[in-house]
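Need tokens for this chain, all 366 residues.
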Amino acid sequence: MSSSSDTIYIQRALELAKRAEGHVEPNPMVGAVVVAGGEIVGEGWHQQFGGPHAEVHALAQAGERARGATLYVTLEPCCHTGKTPPCTEAVIAAGIARVVAAVADPFPKVQGGGFEQLRAAGIECEVGIMEQEARELLAPYLKLTTTGVPWVIAKWAMTLDGKIATHTGSSQWITNEVSRARVHELRGRVDAIVVGSRTANVDNPMLTARPSGPRVATRIVLGGLDEGSQLASTIDQAPLMVVQSREPDAGEYDWLTSRGGELLLIRRGDHLAQITELLAELGRRRMTNVLCEGGGQVLGALFDARVVDEVHAFIAPKLVGGSGARSPIEGLGISDMGAAIQLEDVVIEQTAGDLYLRGRVPKVSS
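Here are the structure tokens for all 366 residues:
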């Protein structure tokens, strides 16, 4: 039987789990709390991919006080040997009497098996406390695990009148330094950053996180890339992949492969088909979070395919006008305003004069 204190301790476990963001993917972010006699005696979170899990850290901190205590954890304890031994063994050995978890783990080698092992050892188990909050935190892991496709984040910067560049193509800089710093933070926790060839060659970004974050993203260009681009000249700083739909001419991309870059052939003509296959390939590579920074054609194809999960938009109080100026989302679009995508869990904040809006795209009901 759950109680209000169970919610308090799961909330603390969720706070701990959040600290793992960017450090543990493709593993899930997990936090754990050990409580004895109404007092927290151990805390932990999964700190690094391949390292001890949250339960192990919390039990180690609790020591002998774990015997007869309750373990609160954001995700079902694992019951298989991966890079570390099963957490269920550590929980049983510590003498935990009760386990309260927010979410069951859909990973094929777990899927309720953790709870089965614990119950077989006489440990009381309860699942579902703050489940919605945990699912929101674990959404990228849950999507990759259940669909094989990464969590897709769409990001753009635009003027107040919805332009990502002037009619001449000028785009630097739309937003201020504070907004751009937030973009670098976002880049530093994802596995890949996708742009189209126009963005890569005309805007000529590096697409690196400065300063660096916990992850180094693979920069991915859909279409052609100039050898003289900043992306090409910084392969030693971050991986680079060029995605083509045609067989390249002899020697066309020797410069890319000779420097350690990758040429990926996806023999499908339009952006939508290319992106669908690319996301499947990145999922096979166990990439968890993919950031798309444009341009409008690529973002449009992503939204047309309904594969975007999260939006980060930076809006500057500037007006440029121009019927030929580019907008952030092109593609086919939506014909009826009643069918427009309404973001959920929206957060809006000011970044030194700009507006930073982020939210999640609701799932399409089947």
